[in-house]
């Protein structure tokens, strides 16, 4: 998810509170899937139905997103 803030002027309303600064927030949701291959999977000692966890990795060049 990417969040950016762009300054924008206030809406013109008769009962608008007085403020020195205004801000507009836009949220963009980026969806993707990630597939990896597990080498030597047959050597994993987990039983059927047990959880197999991977180490943390980042998606592409953006190291801010950790999975």
Automatic annotation (TrEMBL):
InterPro entries: MATH/TRAF_dom, TRAF-like. It comes from the Eukaryota. SUPFAM superfamilies: TRAF domain-like. Gene3D superfamilies: Apoptosis, Tumor Necrosis Factor Receptor Associated Protein 2, Chain A. Residues 31-67 form the MATH domain. This is MATH domain-containing protein. It comes from Megaselia scalaris.
């Amino acid at each position: 998810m990417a969040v950016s803030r762009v300054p924008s002027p206030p809406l013109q309303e008769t009962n608008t509170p007085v403020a020195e600064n205004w801000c507009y927030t836009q949220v963009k949701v980026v969806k993707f899937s990630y597939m990896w291959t597990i080498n030597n999977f047959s050597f994993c000692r987990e039983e059927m139905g047990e959880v197999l966890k991977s180490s943390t990795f980042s998606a592409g060049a953006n190291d801010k997103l950790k999975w």
